[in-house]
Amino acid sequence: MIRLFKSVFVVSVLSLLAVCASADEPSITWPAGWEVEALPKTTPEVSRQRAVKNDAGGNQVMVVELTMTQVEKDHQVNLQGVLLEMRKSIQKDFFQGGYQSVCNKVHPATLGTLSALETTCTITENGRHVLSQTLVMAVAADKAYVLSYAGQADVYKASADEIVALRNSLKL
What we know:
alpha+beta, 4 helices, 39% strand
């Protein structure tokens, strides 16, 4: 299951957006009890923050990651197109792992105070709901933000209030 969570976030926003100079880090208020993971900075144009929720046995049951990417000046980001490509990539990864996934239509949402687009996927194995994942994307000035969160079906549902609080706390 952990391998799935790691592969869930292997979507490169860099390949979908034009990038330039570095920027300030977004601010997140992580829920109590979540373990914030230190992520290496791979490029000055991209910032990633991640936290995981573990069960009593120390197994990851929920993962949240925020990625900020610098967008080239005057570049118009096709939010819908980028989000659909990310969703397709995730569905392909799950399919290759032997899972089926169904995603809802991309629809308007908010990310912090920004207007955003969002989609949620339900991942099943042999007809049993095992995971859910949501992708939310927004653009402000010269930055694109992607919030991705995934978790075991029951934990995802039980964590809904924590995720809403986290999304509302974002300072982008």
